[in-house]
Design brief:
Layout (H helix, E strand, L loop, with lengths): L2 E5 L38 E9 L3 E9 L8 E12 L6 H7 L1 E2 L3 E5 L3 H15 L13 E5 L14 H12 L18 E2 L2 E2 L1 E11 L2 E12 L26 E8 L5 H17 L9 E8 L4 E2 L17 H22 L3 E2 L5 E2 L2 H5 L3
Parallel strand pairs: 6-7, 12-13
Antiparallel strand pairs: 1-2, 2-3, 3-6, 4-5, 4-13, 4-14, 8-9, 10-11, 11-12, 15-16
Helix pairs in contact: 2-3, 4-5
Family: Belongs to the peptidase S58 family.
InterPro entries: ArgJ-like_dom_sf, Peptidase_S58_DmpA
GO molecular function, one term: aminopeptidase activity
Length: 362
């Protein structure tokens, strides 16, 4: 039997939910964080996890991100992606960039769980709109992945459509004040800079023309060579694992309530690369490094009632503050994943020590 643990944003005492980055002095940048310092600081955005454990072999799961609580197929959000290095097996990115919109929740999982998660998103969309694929267009599921095969027996194909549906349900459930991070959901079996990686998050508050806005980042951190990690104060963390070629991946999901259109969101997504680089990564040959950004400021109707739709967008010369917020939140989200993750032993006895344990050494 696979032990399956579901969690929404409520803080629950399951493995992997440790302290936040700022609790270890690993905050990044100068802009102020949001009240939760999480992607869920952007109003309407919700996160849920499904965590899978089985014996010593299965360490994996699914993480769901909901841009808003309504029907995304009918009320889409502007979105864009940026592929920093394309060694990945994600699904749905091509249509996001062609149409500039997102019409399903985002699911994160392991490389071999993509198909099961796509099925779950299609069924989820049809449940909300039975005409999909018959009287209306088909739906574009968006699933992004990292390879957790060092700690997880990825050939076991442990992630099912039911697990993905449980992550979606956890995200939609009533939320508490805190989002679980670390070795949870899709982050359960991930490694980062030779340490235990996983799910991390951070947010920034911005004032634009004296109006408050927020930008949040969520990362699936599974990248970086041992010994390359740089902390915000400039310290280099000595390797806790044998050096090997860069074959990991990182997924960055960015949410904001700033009114941005597709082209601007693509520019924002590109700045996630700055935050990743600050932590010490160079996006190696075998790394799948992808950022997806969306805005909740306005929705785009599937069945428009007018030929011309009004849109608000941020003036181009005001983008620098958004770029800074993106870089800072992304870098701190990586620190958050490392800070929260627990030391883990998994498939074939492979072991990943936590950053907290390394920093506690004399």
């Amino acid at each position: 039997m696979v032990e399956r643990l579901s969690s929404n944003t409520t803080a629950q005492p399951f493995a992997g939910h440790g302290p936040r980055a700022r609790g270890l002095g690993l905050g990044w940048g100068t802009l102020p964080p949001g009240p939760r310092n999480a992607i869920t600081d952007v109003s309407g955005v919700r996160v849920g996890h499904r965590t899978l454990h089985q014996g010593d072999a299965i360490r994996t799961g699914v993480t769901a991100i909901l841009p808003h609580g309504g029907n995304l197929f009918h009320q889409k959000v502007p979105a864009a992606t940026q592929v920093l290095n394309g060694f990945g097996k994600s699904i749905g990115l091509m249509q996001v960039d062609e149409l500039g919109q997102l019409e399903t929740p985002i699911l994160l999982t392991n490389t071999f769980g993509v198909a099961a998660c796509a099925e779950a998103l299609i069924r989820h969309a049809i449940q909300g709109e039975p005409r999909i694929g018959r009287d209306l267009s088909t739906v574009n599921p968006v699933v992004l992945e990292c390879n957790d095969g060092y700690l997880n027996d990825i050939q076991a194909m442990a992630v099912t459509a039911e697990d993905a549906a449980a992550a979606l349900a956890a995200a939609a459930a009533p939320a508490g004040d805190e989002m679980a991070s670390g070795a949870v959901g899709a982050g359960t079996g991930m490694s980062c800079f030779g340490l235990k990686g996983g799910i991390g998050t951070a947010s920034r508050q911005l004032l634009i023309d004296q109006a408050p806005f927020r930008l949040g980042a969520l990362v699936l951190a599974n990248f970086g060579n041992p010994g390359d990690l740089r902390l915000p104060d400039g310290r280099r963390v000595e390797p806790a694992a044998e050096a090997m070629p860069e074959r990991g991946s990182v997924i960055v999901v960015l949410a904001t309530d700033i009114p941005l259109e597709h082209r601007q969101l693509r520019r924002v997504a590109a700045r996630a690369g700055t935050g990743i680089a600050w932590t010490g990564s160079f996006w190696g040959h075998g790394s799948g490094d992808i950022a997806l950004a969306f805005s909740t400021a306005e929705t785009l109707p599937h069945e428009a009632q007018a030929t011309i739709l009004p849109r608000r967008i941020l003036a181009e010369e005001r983008m620098d503050l958004v770029f800074r917020a993106t870089a800072e939140a992304t870098a701190e989200a990586v620190m958050d994943a490392l800070a929260a993750a627990e030391t883990t032993t998994g498939f074939r006895g492979h072991h990943r020590i936590s950053l907290r344990e390394v920093l506690a050494r004399p």
